Amino acid sequence: MALTHTAVSNAKPKDKVYKIFDGGGLYLQVKPTGYKAWKYDFRIGASRGTYTIGQYPDIKLKDAREAHRKAREHVAKGINPRAIKQEQIIANDLDNKRFSHYAIEWLDKQNIADSTYKDLKQRIHKNLTPFLDKKKVNEFSTLELLNIMKKMSDREAIETAHRMANVTRRIYNEILILGIVENNPAQGLAELLPKPDIRKKGNFGHITTPEEIKVLLQQIDNPSARQDVATTQALKLMPLVFLRPKNIRFLKWEFIDFDNAIINFPANELKTRKALAVPLSHQAITILNEIEPLTGSGEYVFVTSHGESNGKPLSEGTTTSALRRLINPTTNKPFGTGYMTSHGFRHMASTQLNELGYDADVIELQLAHINKDRVRATYNKAQLMEKRITMMQDWADYLDGLKAGADVVPIKQVS
Fold first, then answer.
1. Beta partners for 284?
2. pLDDT band (50, 70, 90) for residue 26
3. Which of 220, 231, 242, 401 could be a cystine partner for 349, CB 3.0 to 4.6 Å?
4. What strand order describes the sheet that includes 262-265?
5. CB burial readout 14-53, b (16+ within 10 A) else e
6. Of 99, 125, 157, 161, which Cα lies nearest the Cα of 313?
């Protein structure tokens, strides 16, 4: 006996799953939770299968019967109706979802710190989305993807190009598993890109001699008239706190404790996934006080005038690009690529502080390179913070001395 609308709507959940049949293999399955779904049991040759049409009441009896009729036509031709449904899903995806959709789905699954998530999302948005959202994901060839990556390597962002190539490969792997593409056009993409120049010192351009540091700080204090205030203030703060560039870019006002002169980074903001306290020197507090009237009403500390309307922080590469534009006083031309990067401030501080006699464990802890447990046998927590506060203030005073033109600036060593 065929089902009626009343019978379907009045079907109540029971202790066990049960079915009420409509005919031809179509039935309504009712679960103890109250969930109701239309299903069709079919047979093709010796194989049996169940085709789920959809949930009731989203799909009414009339619509379920029409979907059942089409499915039976496919079965009569030896075609699995589930394959037809998957093709329809893929077709809808290709029509309505572009690369950015799958990128966000992939990104949301990654177990990474919040600041890393924001940084990677911004990199994808800047370097991939504008080009990969122009067509359907199944319409890109490896050559087309390579040309997109070359846009990064051509501007000498070779590390970024390699990273984005690997990200694209991983996103396309998920698209491949979904059956939306037949192969991964980004497979092996990174191998086709120019290799980073291993002759460069380290992975990031940096300077370490007192004379070079003096010139750098003097140039930072004398920016071009076109440079945004937020960029200048970020550059001034970087050598004083030697944080990772993304932690400067995504620095929030809520992290800053002016009363105790400290930045308290929560664990989810850091690469190490461990909270970090950064003591602030008097000089660092002055820099933050200077920018607070401009951006203090928003979330992020360093927001350029261009980004004020949407509250977005400094974009990737802003500070490194500004460092490249600094003028070499001996040539009156920009220093250019390789002189210094945003990340280079960390190398600079590490090298100088070690040479100046500070305890290596205290330096590494401030750089968030090691766990507190490693140094706990030597210092207690209060001693560590006291030593870090002293080191950070002495370091700021040392930099001020260099900037003022001193040949050798004494620095009080931590005993």
1. none
2. very high
3. 242
4. 256-257, 262-265, 276-279
5. eeeeeeeebeebbbbbbeeeeebbbbbebeeeeeeeebeb
6. 125
Q: Which of 196, 185, 128, 201 is nearest to 162 (CA)?
A: 196
Average pLDDT, the chain: 84
Q: How far apart are CA 362 and CA 291, in angstroms?
A: 29
In 313-323, which positions are buried (b, 16+ CB within 10 angstroms) versus exposed (e)? bbbbbbbbebb
| Per CATH, domain 210-403 is 1.10.443.10 | yes
* pLDDT of res. 235: 94
The secondary structure element, H or E, covering residue 395 is helix 381-403
Tokens representing 386? Answer: 């006291």
- 8 A C-beta contact, residue 159 and residue 196: yes
The pLDDT, as a whole number, for residue 201 is 42
The answer to whether the peptide bond before residue 57 is cis (omega within 30 degrees of 0) is: yes
pTM: 0.55
61 token code pair: 């009896």
Task: Name the superfamily (CATH) of residues 99-192.
Answer: Tyrosine recombinase, N-terminal domain (1.10.150.130)
3-state secondary structure of 98: coil
Q: pLDDT per residue over 192-220, tens digit each?
A: 888 865 444 445 567 778 888 898 999 99
Do 15 and 32 meet the contact criterion of CB atoms below 8 Å apart? yes
Pairwise CA distance, residues 360 & 363, whole Å = 5
Cβ contact 59:36 at 8 Å: no
- Beta-carbon contacts of 328 under 8 Å, excluding residues fewer than 6 positions away, are 215, 334, 335
Please tell me which residue, 389 or 308, carries the higher pLDDT value. Answer: 389
5-79 sits in which CATH class?
alpha beta
Q: Do 392 and 233 meet the contact criterion of CB atoms below 8 Å apart? A: no
d(CA 259, CA 256) in angstroms, rounded, equals: 9
Contact yes or no for 132/152 (Cβ under 8 A): no
Domain with CATH 1.10.443.10 in the chain: 210-403
99, two tokens: 């690369």
DSSP string, 129-169: HHHHTSS-GGG--HHHHHHHHHHHHTTT-HHHHHHHHHHHH
Query: Which residue intervals of the chain bear CATH 3.30.160.390?
Result: 5-79
Question: Contact at 8 Å (CB) between 261 and 396?
Answer: no
Q: Which residues pair with 317 in a beta bridge?
A: none
